[in-house]
Write a structure and sequence with these properties.
By secondary structure, the protein is an alpha/beta fold. It has one domain: Ribokinase (UDP-N-acetylmuramoyl-L-alanine:D-glutamate ligase). 36% of the residues lie in helices and 21% in strands. It is built from eleven helices and 14 strands. It has an eight-stranded mixed beta sheet with strand order 4-1-9-10-11-12-13-14, with helices on both faces. A four-stranded mixed beta sheet has the order 3-2-7-8. A hairpin with a 4-residue loop joins strand 7 and strand 8. Helix 1 crosses helix 9. The longest helix has 15 residues. The N and C termini lie far apart (40 Å).
Length: 308
């Protein structure tokens, strides 16, 4: 059986966004912000990022039986994402995230997980046929770790490429990491997993080496405007990022991962796939909001024509 398509397992939130001159410190109130709402959640963001980049995407998740949940499903459906395996939870509300965004794109985020925290191992196993059919499975850490572990195990057993975006940062067992084809941490997540503080090229390389020794197949460390570092059993490569004016970096990592899955699914070599993902992420940071920032395929292709 030929395997194709991208399966995303993860969270869906409604983002409540306040754009400010600066982020408030502890006990500080910053006024004159601009408020908006947007669909978000790391799993849903990655699904949308992949769909708009040209992928055929199915999403597994949980939302509440509320207006937020209905809106989330409608938004995903408009991007052609199969949401037939998303559970409407009768007991928990849909997830929400409260996001403050400062000028220049820096943000702080607080999440009320709601139904996302009830995405279960049983939910994943009920969709086991999808794991056998997909070419790539993409997962993050905004749902319970046992659920993530089950999804990774099912995908790995089926021979799918497993992309784990270890965000939000948390410690992960080696037994899980050994089943991961591609790990995509940023510098903070890499530090938590390895104990190596990533501050420059040398420390980034050291952290990547440590992750490879833990059993990860490939490490792609995303370092924002500094670019990305790729480490495999045979390859070590720095990829410079695109120079853009950042407005909001909220979903940049999610858009990167979604686009990466598409490019790999199309058979692009790793460095070309990373470049494709970098182009998508670079566009996303020039726009406000999570899912609204995800670019279409034609926009990514145009960005790739730029030299930097």
């Amino acid at each position: 059986m030929k395997k194709s398509g991208i399966l995303v397992v993860g969270s869906s939130n409604t983002d409540m966004i306040v754009q400010l001159k600066k982020l408030p410190g502890p006990g500080e109130t910053v006024i004159n912000g601009k408020f908006s709402t947007a669909p978000g959640g790391k799993g849903a963001n990655q699904a949308v990022g992949a769909a708009r980049a040209g992928g055929s995407v199915t999403f597994i998740g949980r939302v509440g039986s509320d207006d937020f949940g209905a809106s989330a499903l409608a938004n995903l459906g408009r991007d052609g994402i199969d949401v037939s395996r998303v559970v409407r939870d009768p007991k928990a509300p849909s997830g929400v995230a409260f996001i403050c965004v400062a000028e220049g794109g820096e943000n702080s985020i607080a999440v009320a997980s709601g139904a996302n925290d009830r995405l279960s191992v049983a939910d994943v196993k009920r969709s086991s046929v999808l794991f056998r059919k997909c070419g790539i499975m993409l997962v993050q850490l905004e749902t319970p770790l046992p659920t993530v572990t089950a999804a990774v195990a099912l995908a790995a057993k089926a021979g799918a490429t497993v992309i784990l975006n270890p965000a939000p940062a948390r410690a992960l067992p080696a037994s899980l990491l050994r089943k991961v084809s591609i790990l995509t941490p940023n510098e903070h997540e890499a530090e938590l997993l390895t104990g190596i503080k990533v501050t420059d090229a040398k420390s980034a390389a050291a952290a990547a080496e440590a992750l490879l020794k833990m059993g990860v197949g490939t490490v792609i460390m995303t370092l924002g405007k500094r670019g990305a570092y790729i480490a495999t059993g045979a390859l070590r490569e720095w990829m410079q990022g695109f120079k853009v004016k950042a407005i909001d970096s909220t979903a940049a990592g999610d858009i990167f991962n979604g686009a990466l899955a598409v490019a790999l699914g199309e058979g692009r070599v790793l460095s070309e796939a990373v470049r494709f993902a970098q182009a998508a992420a670079a566009i996303s940071v020039t726009r406000a909001g999570a899912q609204p920032s995800a670019p279409k395929r034609a926009e990514i292709e145009r960005m790739l024509l730029r030299k930097s």
